[in-house]
Sequence to fold (157 residues):
Amino acid sequence: KKEEKVVEEMKQLYFVIEEYSNLENFFLDPILSTEKKLKIKRNIFKKFSKETNDLLDLLIKNKREGLLKMIVLKFIDLYNNNKGIVPATVISATPLSVESEKEIIKKADQLTPFKIKLKKIIDPKILGGFVLRVGDLQYNASLSNRINILKRELVKS
Fold:
């Protein structure tokens, strides 16, 4: 279960770095001493596991903080590959109903032999329908895509 805890911490870490650019700038600041960075890191991530904190310590002590985002993403990717999980994203204009979500997961299952881990995103710009991304594949069933196809066809005519 340590693996699952660490991968969840990696996701949290990535989210925090993405949301708070000041934190990334702090880690990359060459003026701050290693000791000060370690002290601040301990306060921010005190609830994280020993494994995650050891990784952060190692990166800070070796002045490799700039690699943190890449390492976090690679760790999550390797974990998913090891567990046979492929990330899938569904983008819809409105929240999906339970029935719609089941149909989309069924469609995603047809695209890959791996276990699907679905992430849902709401984007009103697609107007209706959905866009499904499974690994490198994309299935675009959005209303905005249909309108764009019609526009191109009309321009050609």
